[in-house]
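Lab channel / #folding
Pinned by the channel admin:
"Please post every new chain as: sequence first, then the structure tokens as a reply. Keep commentary short and put observations after the output so the thread stays searchable."

First post following the new format, from NK:
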Amino acid sequence: MAKYNDSKCRLCRREGSKLMLKGDRCHTEKCAFDRRPYAPGQHGQARGRKPTEYGIQLREKQKARRIYGVMEVQFRRYYDKARRKRGVTGETLLILLERRLDNVVYQLGFATSRAEARQLVSHGHFTVNGRKVDIPSYSVRIGERIEFKESSRRSPRVKYLIGSLGGKAVVPAWLSLDANTAVGTVIALPAREDIQVPIQERFIVEKYSR
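Reply from TO:
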């Protein structure tokens, strides 16, 4: 599968928003977006440009793709699936993305970024209800327990991640976390108000409806 290998900080600058793609670094003075909050490239600081309607729609779609780390074809599949379901298409799209296992691992504090969460999941470090799952796009369901595999808990990196859970901010309302045992549980499906990402999903729907 195709993979973006360039600087992640360029993506934040291109979208004009801090997308939290580099984990802890995004909270430090090293954050490139804080230092240069304009688009990359020689014309990044050009002024007087008014974005077109299509440009706004495209940027929202790209922003959602980059936050959740999915490629174009996969993102379109999520949209088509959301369109076929009952309810508001844009909200349903974000809910489907939010239910990805790599995102849940990140939201529980088991990784410092979605990219790290995706790597940990694909390397087989997690179990869901006691069964190893190494598919980042796995869609979690109510009642499922997510935790590090027993053998993975001996890894220095995993030990660090588990040790830092005590300082983890409150997890989303649809998840619960036992920081002492490093076990997360899906207690409900996410609602739109639970999804704290800087995305205006209606523009994504408008783009695909053109």
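NK: The mean pLDDT is 85.
TO: also worth noting, The radius of gyration is 18 Å.
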